[in-house]
Design a protein that fits this description.
alpha/beta; two-stranded antiparallel ribbon; globular; ATPase domain-containing protein; nucleotide-binding; P-loop_NTPase; ATP binding; AAA+_ATPase
Length: 250
């Protein structure tokens, strides 16, 4: 069992049981993959992780392909996660990946940029203890270099190049968290990330009568602390944030 100081606590023990359900935190030096269809709660879980980590003293970078800075602050405010102070203190760095209406990441001349290359060269974003890329599939789907490899059926090669960069980052004890919508990307592209993820979580929505229930399915958790729940029910509530509903046995 790893030492507690090798785990980055997700905090908020007084508010929800998420950190306890996930064994006391995320192991340093790990790649975390969070998969889920649209609406399953990927962004909400990323936001909860981010806020809890910052509250526990970790530095965090969160890049979103969907939210602007204003949208992020409003969203966090609605969940009662007050991020204004961490943003001002530079404990939390929020970045918006601004795709144009055609889904391309462009500069002022409208030229498509190699987003993944730019990300890898953006030293400031990788200085944090934990870096979230939400949603990661949108980033590589809209990268022209990756697209060119996909056209040649070389998705796996493209993924492996990105993975080698992530491995270099986590060798410094940092954590990289990727959120992915599996319905938006080919299995050949996402497969390598599933294989190498130290922590692999699938978010699922289940219809129960007229209700939609969300759950966290823990598929892999290398370097876990205490026992980690296989299946953790949760909801996202305005004014409250993430609420752990129950632990059930799948």
């Amino acid at each position: 069992m790893p030492r507690a100081d090798n785990l980055l606590s997700l905090g908020l023990g007084e508010r929800d049981r998420l950190n306890k359900e996930l064994g006391g935190g995320i192991p340093r030096g790990s790649i975390v993959l969070i998969e889920g269809d649209y609406g399953a709660g990927k962004s909400a879980i990323s936001q909860r992780f981010s806020y809890g980590l910052v509250e526990e003293g970790a530095s965090v970078t969160l890049m979103s392909t969907e939210l602007t800075v204003r949208g992020f602050i409003d969203q966090m405010h609605s969940l009662e996660y007050d991020v204004v102070k961490p943003l001002l203190n530079e404990e939390l760095l929020f970045l918006h990946a601004d795709f144009d209406s055609g889904g391309a990441f462009s500069d002022d001349d409208g030229e498509r940029k190699e987003l993944l290359k730019r990300l890898m060269n953006a030293d400031a974003m990788w200085r944090s203890d934990v870096v979230f890329l939400d949603t990661f599939d949108a980033i590589f789907r809209n990268d022209p270099t990756f697209e060119a490899l996909v056209r040649k059926n070389e998705e796996r090669q493209a993924a492996l190049e990105i993975i080698s960069f992530f491995r270099e980052i986590i060798s410094q004890g940092k954590v990289v968290v990727l959120t992915v919508d599996p319905s938006a990307v080919d299995d050949d592209a996402i497969g390598p990330f599933r294989s190498i993820a130290d922590v692999f979580i699938q978010l699922e929505m289940i219809e129960v009568g007229n209700d939609i229930r969300r759950q966290i399915n823990v598929k892999r958790f290398a370097g876990m602390g205490e026992q980690v729940g296989d299946t953790i029910g949760f909801s996202v509530r305005s004014g409250t944030g993430i609420v752990i509903e129950s632990r059930s046995v799948a």
